Amino acid sequence: MFIWIFHSSLEEIIQGTLYIVYYPTYFVIAILLTFAARFLFAKFQAYELLFRRYGILFAILCVITVVIFYANILIGKQQGFTNANIQANSLLFVFYFILLIGVFMVLTRSVMKEAVMQGKQEQYERLLEYTDNLEMMYTDMQKFRHDYINILLSMSEYIRSKDVEGLSTYFDQKILPISQGMQNNNYKLGTLQNVKIQELKGILSSKLIRAQELHIDAVVEAVEPIEAVNMDSVKLCRCLGIILDNAIEEAVKCESSNLRVALVKRTGGVLIAVANSCQPDGPELHRIFEKGFSTKGTGRGLGLSNLREIVSQCAGVTLDTYRKDGQFIQELEVY
Questions:
Q1: Total domain count for the chain?
Q2: Contact 306, 246 (CB under 8 A)
């Protein structure tokens, strides 16, 4: 740039008075490129699939670039730099840089499309599971609606004959079990209708239905409509998936197993709290987030360390973990 602007050689620029402008300009450009590289790396670090699939390729390209760059400088220094050499090298490196950016953008777009498709597929599967559960609940309600008149008529004779003892026995043995059946875990998912985010509703319903199948007393509470959460939906579902999987694995070991999920709207944010029954002799809290630590044997223990890593990458997201009254509680707050 200086050669083109001032029509001077590199030695004249460095040794002359232009060095006062040359070095600060060089420094500013280097700082700007550093921040640009840092911004891009932070932006694309969210796409774990990109680095997992093409990380080695990127590393090789970086090494080759550095080798070519410094080999070119060394050869040029030995042969003596000329203005023509510097300008030709500049054009070659600009072309090489544009080529690398083009390759990077193509690969990024491909991976982003694949990640979106994968997320939609997971969302679709969770919604299918949620829909199946709703259909089952609706079928049970239809059966009850069909039979409840006959149930009432069956009590009429006891009432007509004023047989209070017989009515009490009939109610305890016949009617009460039906009432208890209507209060099973399926109907404890009713407040999910207040969760308006389909991805979030899908992950909550699928995990809680799984907990119910394992005979865990699972309840979700969302009193107010949850219409938006200021967090990437894929990361949010990954975090909740890890939290709920660990909660289910721990609760199923307990004699009185229970799982509670609450979604609370707060001023400027949403709080998602998950509480599950836990064993009193559990490991220390700081250890469960260590990578590789697991109470289930070797080759496990990546879930909670991944959870902490995801949360650390998201601005305005905090995770609080503690034990209280025999419950293991994790609170994910998104501001």
A1: 2
A2: no
